[in-house]
Amino acid sequence: MKLSELVKTVKNSKRLGKGRASGWGKTSGRGTKGQKARSGGAKGPYFEGGQTPLVRRVPKRGFRNIFRKEVVVVNVGILDKNFSEGEEVCIQSLREKKIIRRKLPVKILGKGEVTKCLTVRVDKFSKTAREKIAKAGGIAEEIG
Asked: Which residue ranges form the domains of the chain, and what is each CATH number?
């Protein structure tokens, strides 16, 4: 490589307002007078020319509860389908069978029927889920 073979890669910046001869003198490419010619004249994407913006015209509804505790819900009917008699059901086994994916506490609800004797060890149970598991001869045990 020779010095004569070097190529300039850095582009000169536009030298705005440096006299008429530069081509960017006087108004510096901002056109003539008006809001957009002024400093800070660019309005946001929601600006509607002074009209009350849509964001403010449409009423707010509902709220987000910041104290909400998220849980992954699994019904007893799903346990009955995916596990065999006498098998232990825990968070790890639910993940392996791809019944749950998220890493959150698990709660068993009582929708569906249980015909198999299962030992279920998860974070929470509903009253009906606990009753159905016990009725089938299984054990419902809360962890943590």
From this structure: 72-142 (3.100.10.10)
pLDDT bin (cut points 50, 70, 90) of residue 12 is confident
Bridge partners for 141 per DSSP: 121
The whole-angstrom separation of Cα 128 and Cα 44 is 54
Count CB atoms within 10 A of the CB of residue 94: 22
Cross-strand pairs, 122? 142
Task: Write out the two tokens for 71.
Answer: 């849980």
* Tens digits of residue pLDDT in 110-141: 999 999 899 999 999 999 999 999 999 999 99
Type and span of the H or E element at 140 = strand 139-142
Residue 123: CA atoms inside 13 Å, Cβ hemisphere, count?
14
**Cα end-to-end span (Å), the chain:** 69
Buried b (16+ CB within 10 A) or exposed e, 95-123: eeeebbeeeeebebbbeeebebebebbbe
User: What pLDDT, on the 0 to 100 scale, is given for residue 86?
Assistant: 86
